[in-house]
Amino acid sequence: MTDALDFRLRRLAEKSRMASVRPLEAVWQEIAERPAARHDSLAISLAGQFLQGEELTALTCSALRDRLPLASARASLALQGEDEHRHAALYRRYLEARGARPDAASLLAPAAERFLAWQGPPEAILLALHVIIEGEALAFQEQARHYTNCPSFAALSRLVAADEARHVAFGRIYLPAALWALTPSEKQRIHEWLRALWFECSERLPQVLPRPWLGRFVTRHWAERRWDHWQAQLAELGLPTGNAGRQ
Question: Is 61's pLDDT higher than 50?
């Protein structure tokens, strides 16, 4: 891994530090000043799912941090963990202000189980987090602002999305060099693992976000289309498709 990579990661870490200087209370007050749609059930459901995702990502960043060789990469994960804890606190406040709490069912429950069970290179979990999960979260954030009618949720969503974009950037900066060092068999194993994780989590959508139009067929079609997208993103980073086809 090169000095240029280290420089880019240190610069990204500095941006993260600069973005997190405002006290949590001041950030929350800015969000709370926006009008709130108390009974926007979709915004409440999404906030609960995002909260659980932030908590999972924070724990995973802490667990992975010491497995990375570059100090600048470890610093980036530490700062990301702080971002995720801050996001979780804001989502929790949003829910509490509406007398709500996270649903028991989490969209990312299968990911949590797979992260704990994974015995291979840490790059697999970094790909899951920084390419697929964070990338899909950014897309969900954008769509959520169109399909919900709560200005307070929209303000929270925009704030979180700005941080998530840096987390995605970390993956794009760090992972190509890290993947280059892996063997073809390791890459194939990671690809298959990511694919299984994606479809297992996607199948839970109708359960965690029950909507009349979100049935099994629609979910499956969406998951296959989005997997094509993420598969192309993985290939750009250095994880080729291999022989893994659709389920």
Answer: yes
The first and second tokens of residue 160, run together, are: 């979180």
> Where residue 126 sits, what CATH number does that domain have?
1.20.1260.10
| Sequential DSSP letters for 64-98 | HGGG-S-HHHHHHHHHHHHHHHHHHHHHHHHHHHT
| pTM for the structure as a whole | 0.91
Its sign, for the CA torsion 153, 158, 160, 161, is positive
The stretch 14-20 carries a mean pLDDT of: 91
Q: In this structure, is residue 203 part of a structural domain?
A: no
**Position 194 in a domain:** no
| Tens digit of each residue's pLDDT (9 = 90 or more) over 185-199 | 999 999 999 999 999
Q: How many domains does the chain have?
A: 1
Return left, alpha or beta for 99; rule: phi > 0 is left, psi -120 to 50 is alpha, else beta. left
